[in-house]
Each structure stands twice: as C-alpha cells, then as structure tokens.
Design brief:
The structure is a homodimer. Chain A is built from 23 helices and six strands. Chain A is mostly helical and about 450 residues long. In chain A, strand 1 (about 135-140), helix 12 and strand 2 form a beta-alpha-beta unit. Chain A is elongated, with a radius of gyration of 30 Å. Chain A starts with a helix and ends in a 6-residue tail after the last helix.
Chain lengths: ~450, ~450
C-alpha cells in the first residue's frame, strides 16, 4: 500500500493518487501516516476530499493530528472542524496543547461552542464524555412519512440514523424507533403508535465502563443518554463503547503485571515514563520481599543444620505464588464479567478450597516421591508435602479473598493481582515451610 | 425484577406477568432464569410470545436451553427453531447432547438443512463458524425503489438490514449499499450507480480473531464473508465479533496466569476441571524451580559462610520476576493490539534495555543504601546492587524476547507470560546473585 503511494507521489501522478486514496478505508490511514515523512503526510492529506479528510482526521493519533493542524491554514482548520462529529471535536480539544486549542475554538461555530463546553465539563470517565450530541430526534405526533422527511433532511450528518428517538415537547425521551420499523410501517401511522416505549437509557454521570458493559449485554448499536430531568442529551454509539471495553482490558492487564496504567501505547510512551510507570510497584514489592528475607534469617540455624532446606525455597515460593495468581486472575476476570459477585464469596472460597486440596495432594505426592527417590529422606519428603498442602490452600484462599475484599472497599481488584498476591504468599509460604521443617525435624530455632 | 415475577406467578396474575415480561429486554432473561426454580422457568418461558421466546432463547446458556428443549413438545420446538437465526441454530446444535440434536434436526426445515450442514463443517475458529447466512442481497440493475420493496419483503427476518449487498447473477459480491444511502438516493437510480465498490471482505476460512480485529479497526456493523470464488456466502455481525474479542481476552488472561483455557465460566467449571486446568502448568513450573533449587545447592558453602545471602534470595527472585512480567505483559498486549510487530524486535530490545538500566539503578541504589544502613556491609551492598543491575536487565530482555520468539514460531505468546518468564528469571537471578557474591566476597565454591 505504502509503496504504491510513495511511487505515485514521486512520479507526481496526483490524480491517480487521489483516486487510490479515496478508495481506501479511513481506518487504513493511521498506519500509512506512521511510515511516511511529515512532508509526504501533508501532501497525502491535502489531496483528500473534504469529507474523506474529516473521516481520516478523526482516526488519527493526537500527535499526528497536532502536526497536521500546525500545517493548516485557518480556512482548512475550519473546514475540518465543521465536518467532524461533535464528540471527535471534544476529544481533539482534550488532547491538544493550549495554543492549538485556542486556534480550534476560534474556528468552532458559535452554535456549537455551548455544546462543546458542556461536553468538556462532564466528570472524567462519565458517560457524558463519550456521548455524541448528534442524533435523529422525532416527535410523537409525526407520521411515518414526516419522520422519513426529517431523517432525509438531517440524518445524514448524524453519527447513527438507524435508531431514532421520539421526544416530547420538553425533550423528554418517550420512545425509540428503528429505521427498520419505519420501513415496514404505513406512511400515515403516527410515531406514538409504533414506537418502542421500553427504552433502556443511561445518564450523563454514569461510569463509562458500566455503559460499555450494557452494550456487551444488550447488543445495542446506540444507547440514549438522559439528564436528571430525563431529557435526552446525547447518544453513545457502539464504536465508542468498544473502545472503552478495550481500554479497560488493557488497563487490567498492566495493573495485573504491577505497572501503573498509562494512556499511551507502548512505543508512544517514553523510556522515562515507562521506568516511572514500573518503578512504583517494584519498590513496594521489593520492600515486602525484605520481610520474607527477614523471616528466612530467623531460621538461620535451621538451614545451617539442614542446608538442603534452602534448595526448596524457590519451589515452595514459586508454586505458592503461581497457585495464588491462578485463583486471583480467575476471580478478577469473573468479577469484571459480572459472573462473580461479592455475595458469592463463600461459594468461591468453598470451590477454591476443594480445588486447592486436589492440586496440593497431587503436587505434594509428586514432590514427596521425587525426594524419596533423590535423597532417601522421609522426613524431608513429609516436610515438603505438608508445607505444600498448607501453602497451596492458603494461596488459593488469599487469591480469592484479596480481590473480593478490594472490590468491597472500592479499590480496583486488578491491583490485588499477581504481584501483590505473590508477595503476600511468598512471606506465608516461607514461614509455613520453616515452621513445618523445624517441627518435623525437631530443630530448635533459638539455639 | 425477580421478586415482582415471583409475586405475579404466585398470585396467578398471568396477564400482568405476560405484559411485564414482554416489556423486558431479552438480555435480562438469563439472570432471571438462573434464580428461579426449573418449574417457574418453564412457566415464564411458555407465557412469552413466539417472537420474544425465540429472542430470549438465543440469549440463554446451553444448560438452560437443554432444560427448556426437554420440556418442549415437538410443535413448540419447531416454532422456536423456525424463529431462530441460522447461526444461533448452529450454535445450539454444537452445544447440545446427541439425543437433543436429533430432535432439533428433525424439526429443521428441509431448505435450511443444507445450509446448517455447511455451517457445521467450517473449521474450528474460522470466520465460517461465526457468520450468518441471512442478509439482504440485491442486484446491480435494481432501482432504489425495487431495492426498498425487496428489503421490506425479506429484510425483517434478517439479522441486519442496514448493510445491503449487491450481487452479480453468479452471486459474486459487487458492492455494498447502506440503508442510509438508499434513503437519500432518487427512487429511479440504479444500484450499480450508487453502490460502494470498495468493499472490505473476509473469507470463510479466515481465523475469527483476525476478523474480530478488523471490526475493531474499521468500525463495521457487519462484514461480508466470501468463498474462494468470491461469492458472498454470509455476513458477520458486530455482536458476534465483540463476543470473539471478549473470549480472546479472557483466554489471554488465564493463559498468562498459567491456566489452561476452558470454554466455561468460573462457576460452570467443576472442581475437578478447575484442578485439571491448573495442575499442568504448576507441575511444569515446579519442575523448573527444582533447577533453581539445584543452583542454590551448588552454592551451599557460600551461604554457610555468609548466611545473610539467603535472606536476599526472595528479594532478588521476586524483583527479577516482576520486572520480567512487566515487560512480557506490555509486549504481549502490544502484539495482540498489532502495535508491536516482529520487525520491531530491536527497537523493543533497545527501549527495554534503557528502561532496565533506569529501573535497575534506582532499585540498586535503594537497596545499597538500605544495606549500608542496616548491616554496615559495603561488600554486601555492592553484591546486591550489581546483581540487581544484571538480573533486571536480563529479565527485561527475556520479557520481550520470549513472547516475540514464541510468536515467530507460531506459539501463543500469552503462554510465555508471567509464570514462564518468572521461572526462567528465577534460575538466572539466583545464578547471577551467587556468582556475583562469590566473586566479590572471594568465596571458593569448591571447598
């Protein structure tokens, strides 16, 4: 794709270039712009039709958008902003540095400025920040034919025309009609007789993650957003809901790997920022592993007498940590998919307890037999087997309890995942192991 | 919701019950059916209108579907199957035990049987398995008015009417038209003059995860699926694509926590199955931690001479493991979002190398200072600081190399995540730590 474009530019075949570019999907442009020089990017962008240019612009990352805006005349900037959907303009304003924002606001139509200000003022992560104010609004007393006339007239600049919203005179949402329903209805039927009045809505202040989950559950194309007085103020479309779901998943992944989440992608995050995102949890977890070290020091004379005990520390710690993170991952995912609820706590603990016993028996048996064969040491075999039974059961218990406790206290459960569980289970596993060892082997810790 | 339903049933107010049930969204029923008794579930289901019943049925989990089918007469079963979309019928056949499948197939219309057999024969995880064969097909020479007539006649049983497909006489896909475009066109325009010929398609054998990613990139509502001869055989709708994306993410989460993925949700998986899904990786990882133990044993006289070294094992192992899993998680996510490509390998390594140096310097410094204060032991401080520099750099290197190597050899990168990286980095970290310690402290290992 890029080679063809580069060739057309260097051969100055601009008509062919335009034709080829117009045939591409606007979602193909971000990767093209990543790979060509800035000068060529501007050439490519300028050659697009006004409509295509706006479509492409909305797809681009903010650093590319900024470069383009800096190359625009005021006229070009105004053209783009007029073509952009309202929610894309708001996203743009939120991402740009203040000098660019000033230029953008200067070129916004007066009628749009108020709406943009309202959209900018919704609290972070609320439904208001991802909704668009452009939708097809119809009146209850319209006929089907009148509705079609209105859709033809206004619908084409709207982000979705397939769901239409029927409002009362004071803009309260009375019902919805799919374009499909209008198609089969008789021309002179009144909307109020055919509209669907069982409308599921959300409000401007709802958490956007909850909104995205509603899309996942109900398979909407668009969800109406109402204010406190139940007036329709906007709609959220499925593409924005999918983006929220994806962002949420990405955040869970990095949090579960003990990284502070960042808004940017891997390559767009600087080395310093990467280091900063990672060092916080590393320091915290390092401090806690010092406690584990201190526990080991306490049993110095145990491993002075039986040095082989030290060789089992990695296995005990590792297995316990893995068991804990298996459980915590399943529970965290279960909670974020709404399958596991706080009220299921005892059900989860009982299930994990039985899984733990099964898993620990297998691991204990495998290890016991290995030790008997390798070292012919029955006491050591018993120590390792009993320790595993204790540590695995405890790890599974912590693996479900900590994330659910976090949720109970409105802390993000993903923060309780793998590394936190591992560290807590490290301490406990070493403690259990040495307790069992000194007891079974009759070692006095306080010599 | 459930209380209201229970009350209406016990008061035998079935008309009110029907009215209330019809006002609910079909996606609300699975949670209702989870909580009522089987007898009440059948009462509730029977009271629904035929159309609602089919909608609700498609939303249910397979165990509930099976219970309902077992309560159906042949007539009731036929009614439901006639109303179901083709892809939902195929899903049902794939989930049910063979005696139920026989009953279903007996009640399928002859005309549908061939299509169902074809759908059942697409390879696992291919686009063919998630597509529906129901779509609006139009001809190039139709006028806009004829198109509307056809949509009105056939479109209403179709899963999506908003994208229409223009086919040649031999059913090759020539273009697409959105319902929106038809609305603004003149009645006597020919479809071939207004259709969009730049159609993005996929084929029946494409991996369904790649298809789902196309939805994410292009914001489609539906994607046409063609066979080898470019004939249109079906479409994939956005709701099915979202399900694929969600399943993929769930799979990545469990794989990254060293669990074998399962098709079922947490509670629907039995204790034995849970234990089975978890034990495989636990045994593998346990075996490898035995190697770490063996490395430690080799340095027995090092910690016999300097017992405090043992206390640093958890910190070194833990920090190294956490550093490795931070990197591997970012790289695995980056690859699954298509931001990180195999050709970026050296760019990634160079970035991670610089992050590692920054992080290691901070961790080494923090530890060195702590040791100087706590133990007044300069040699120990140097050993720990140098070890961290080595282990952190190595962990970040492994954290990006192993997942990318896995992808190169077509192994799932998620399998290389947290636990595998941790185990490899466990071995290396212990080895580096004792090598550095014996060298700096002048301990002879082979006494």
């Amino acid at each position: 794709m890029n080679e063809k474009i580069e060739n057309l530019i260097s051969e100055k075949r601009f008509n062919d270039l335009r034709e080829y570019l117009e045939s591409l999907n606007s979602a193909d442009f971000p990767s093209i712009f990543e790979e060509v020089s800035d000068e060529k990017m501007i050439v490519i962008y300028r050659i697009l039709s006004k409509e295509k240019a706006a479509e492409v612009f909305a797809e681009l990352d903010s650093d590319i958008q900024e470069k383009l805006i800096n190359s625009f005349s005021e006229k070009e900037l105004k053209d783009i902003i007029d073509e952009l959907f309202m929610d894309d303009t708001v996203d743009l304003i939120e991402e740009m540095p203040s000098n660019v924002v000033k230029r953008i606001l200067k070129n916004v139509k007066n009628s749009d400025r108020k709406v943009i200000n309202e959209l900018l003022n919704y609290p972070e992560d609320s439904a208001g920040t991802i909704m668009t104010t452009e939708f097809v609004d119809l009146k209850e007393n319209m006929t089907v034919e009148q509705a079609f006339d209105k859709i033809r007239k206004i619908g084409l600049q709207k982000e979705t025309v397939y769901n239409c919203y029927v409002l009362s005179l004071d803009r309260k949402l009375k019902g919805i009609i799919d374009l499909k329903d209008l198609l089969i209805a008789e021309k002179d039927q009144k909307l109020k007789d055919i509209m669907n009045v069982n409308v599921i809505t959300t409000n401007t202040l709802e958490d956007k993650e909850n909104v995205a989950k509603m899309f996942d559950k109900y398979n909407f194309f668009a969800l109406p957003v109402v204010d406190k007085e139940k007036r329709l103020v906007g709609i959220i479309t499925i593409d924005d809901a999918i983006d929220v779901l994806q962002d949420e998943v990405d955040e869970d992944f990095v949090k579960m790997a003990a990284i502070s989440p960042s808004d940017n992608t891997y390559f767009k995050t600087s080395v310093f920022k990467h280091a900063k995102n990672r060092i916080f949890w590393l320091i915290i977890l390092m401090l806690s592993s010092i406690v584990t070290g201190a526990i080991i020091t306490r049993y110095e004379n145990a491993f002075a007498m039986v040095p082989i005990l030290v060789a089992f520390i990695p296995m005990i710690m590792g297995t316990t940590g893995n068991c804990g993170s298996q459980t915590s991952t399943l529970i965290i995912r279960g909670m974020s998919n709404d399958e596991v609820q706080l009220k299921d706590y005892f059900r989860v603990v009982w299930k994990e307890f039985r899984v733990a016993i099964l898993v620990a028996l297998m691991l204990g048996l495998a290890n016991g037999i290995r030790i008997l064969i390798q070292y012919q040491d029955l006491k050591l075999a018993i120590v390792v087997a009993i320790s595993l039974l204790g540590t695995v059961t405890l790890a599974k218990f912590l693996g479900c309890t900590l994330p659910m406790l976090a949720k109970k206290f409105k802390i993000d459960p993903a923060l309780m995942a793998t590394p936190v569980i591992s560290t807590v289970s490290d301490m406990c596993s070493v403690l259990i192991f040495f307790k069992v060892a000194t007891f079974v082997m009759g070692i006095d810790v306080n010599i």
